[in-house]
Amino acid sequence: MRHIPEEPETQGAPPRVPRQRSTGAVPTSADVARRAGVSRATVSYVLNNATAVRISEPTRRRVREAAEELGYVPHAAARSLRAGQSRMVLMPAPTAPVGTLYHRFFHDLQWALSRLDYTVVQYGSAGLTGDEAALAWAELRPVAVVAPGIHELGPAGVAVLKRSGARAVITVGPCPVEGAHALLTDHGEVGRCAAEHLLARGRRRLGVVMPEQPALAVYARARLAGVRAAAARAGAEVTELPLAYEETAAARLAADWPERGVDGVFAYSDEYAMLLMAALQDRGIRVPADTAVVGVDDLMLGRLLRPRLTTVRMDLPSAQELAELVDRTVRHPGASPTVRDLLGVTLVARESS
Predict the structure, then answer these.
(1) Do 52 and 82 form a contact (C-beta atoms < 8 A)?
(2) What are phi and psi of 307, to 5 degrees?
(3) With contact defined as beta carbons under 8 Å apart, do 311 and 297 qualify?
(4) Phi then psi for 314, rounded to 5 degrees?
């Protein structure tokens, strides 16, 4: 660890002045240095949380207080130029409504990456997918991109990102992409797990709720395939049940339920399961006596229903693990792309099935 000479202490504590408003000139690190009575290098070490140098806590406190009083904000682009690379990790925003599980995971990943001195930016692609989306992401010059499979990133898009300076391109989806590290999420296992539970409960005419949002199709079709594979082995029937996330759509589906002859339902998510279950109960269809219901995500709200909702819990690795993977890939960009299974599933049996 380097040791730099202590900055001379000023006589008495530096005067506290109200934080400056942003109506004047933008404060610089030189302004912070003058206010704190230290060098610009010390300001940089303190505000970048440098661990390779030893700076006393009183000096660190003076620098932070001066920065706060002046309203100083480090310039990320300038820091990137000095470092020779960005510290931005870009995550494309979902193209369809997402649930609590995704928001919790994104929050945890953002926190874990910030501990490694990365800034996470969620990019709204405004309907762009594939290589066209990659071109838009590349304009921001991220050091890493973590792209979900719904954006259909291909080998050409990966090459574009790498040419723009991205050291790590990591896809999260059902299949790997040439040139990128891959975190595989086999959603067929989600459907298989739910179907095997329903089959074990004696259900032989299975319905699968398929969301009508096109952006969810890549996951919904994989889950349906898992149900079909399990049902085929058991000689059971499978019926697709397209459903918009609306009360009126669920009511229409429930209205002709007896004619469908479905005795077990696997819904795309807990939210779709709860939507349909309420509509079925409104029609006098008993859950689970007439129709068993299974969802996905293990949301708290599902435990508050009566009957409580059976669900498939998806077990993801910790955000810390993924953050460390991003950091390793950024530090060693020449490493061969790796493929890792990401998703584990667990059936949580409750009263609805």
Answers:
(1) no
(2) -70, 155
(3) yes
(4) -90, 125
